[in-house]
Amino acid sequence: MMGNSEPIKIDLIGFNQRMLDTLVMVMKGPAKDVCQLSVDDSAVAVIIDWDAVGAQELLRKYRSKNPERFAIALSVKEGNIESADEVMIKPIKIPEFCATMKRVSDHLRSQPEKSVQRISPPPMLQPTLAAVNDSPIELAITPEPEVQKVHVLAQDLDMSITMELKAFPTHTEEFKAVCGEAEDIDFENQAQVSGLFVSMDNRLLGTVLQAKTEALHQQKPMLIRLKSVPLFLLLPQQQTIKSTIKDDMLQRFCGKEFPTDSLQIEPVTLPPPEMDNASSEAIESLLWKLSAWSYCGKLPSSIKLQDRVFLRHWPNLTRLLELPDAMRISALLVEEHPMTLQGIAEALAIPQRHVFAYFSAAHTIGLMGEAKRKSDLLIEQPVKLTEQNNRKLLGRMMGHLRRYLS
Question: Domain range for residue 219?
Answer without folding.
Answer: 204-292
